[in-house]
Amino acid sequence: MQLTKKISEVRSLIKQWRKEGLSIGLVPTMGFLHEGHKSLIDRAVKENDRVVVSVFVNPIQFAPNEDFEAYPRDIERDSKLCEDAGAALVFNPEPEEMYGDEFLTSINMTKITEVLCGKTRPTHFGGVCTVVGKLFNIVSPDRAYFGQKDAQQLSVIRRMVKDLNFDIEIIGCPIVREADGLAKSSRNTYLSPEERKAALVLSKSLCEAKKLIESGETNADKIITAAKKLIESEPLAKIDYVSIVSWDSLEKTDTINGAILMAEAVYIGKTRLIDNFITEQI
Ligand code: AMP
């Protein structure tokens, strides 16, 4: 496996692979890899001849008050995980390599970036679309893999690919969880032992909601209220949002009808965590 910080080196390897007629899969990440990321890499390795994993904490998707500096980084450990999983290349650029000293262009999307996480993080998805668009142009993969953990991001990327005619198949992969239900996340490392326990309200409230739906409840407000009640019973938790929307238009829906996404963002202490479920296959 190779590790590079240079766009030119990625390009020349890709050129070589294309000459050999090999297919290419891309797994974009911010690093500090865990089993969730590994599930994406495993799937990419199964479905492509060569897999590129990008490890880049993308500064432009963080607002000034967010955790860009504090975000955990460990490229040595990440490289080992990628190599063991069968990736062919890890691309780990510095921000200067991606954005130079004057970057004037961005990809901005409206509507579906303005709901759910977009309300609290209004500049986030512009940063995500711009970096993913750049990665798509640098790597030009056949397929790119994204986790349902970030369901809105998956929907946004699918939309960007459709709107801007990227010739890339977007593959959505299921959420990988800890044994007790907490969705795996690099940000879980921020949690104190007490907060780690409190963080279970996210998955528990979604389980509760799912049970209500399975028992025939179709009123979205009732389901949201039940989930909120459970979260509010945890003193360390503060709700950002709990929402039910249609999948994958992300339009608000009052009734459970067809595929829906129930998504939530909850602060546990200072750490903002997200979780969700979708009632149909992604
Ligand atoms: P991140 O490094 O957090 O930007 O995530 C990189 C990719 O891994 C995104 O497509 C995420 O949705 C995906 N991912 C992160 N955590 C999980 C998880 N617990 N299960 C499945 N995919 C995940």
Entry summary:
By secondary structure, the protein is α/β, with parallel strands linked by helices. It has helices at residues 7-19, 35-47, 75-85, 95-99, 117-120, 124-139, 151-163, 193-198, 200-214, 220-232, and strands spanning 2-4, 24-29, 50-55, 89-91, 143-147, 169-173, 237-246, 260-268, 271-278. It has a six-stranded parallel β-sheet with strand order 1-4-3-2-5-6, sandwiched between helices. Strands 7-8-9 form a three-stranded antiparallel β-sheet.
What does this structure look like?
The protein is of the alpha/beta class. It has two domains: 2-173, HUPs (Rossmann fold); 186-276, 2-Layer Sandwich (Pantoate--beta-alanine Ligase, Chain: A,domain 2), CATH 3.30.1300.10. The protein is 39% helix and 20% strand. It is built from ten helices and nine strands. It has helices at 7-19, 35-47, 75-85, 95-99, 117-120, 124-139, 151-163, 193-198, 200-214, 220-232, and strands at residues 2-4, 24-29, 50-55, 89-91, 143-147, 169-173, 237-246, 260-268, 271-278. It has a six-stranded parallel beta sheet, sandwiched between helices. Helix 9 runs antiparallel to helix 10 (220-232). The longest helix has 16 residues, at 124-139. The model has no long low-confidence stretch (mean pLDDT 98). The chain binds adenosine monophosphate (AMP).
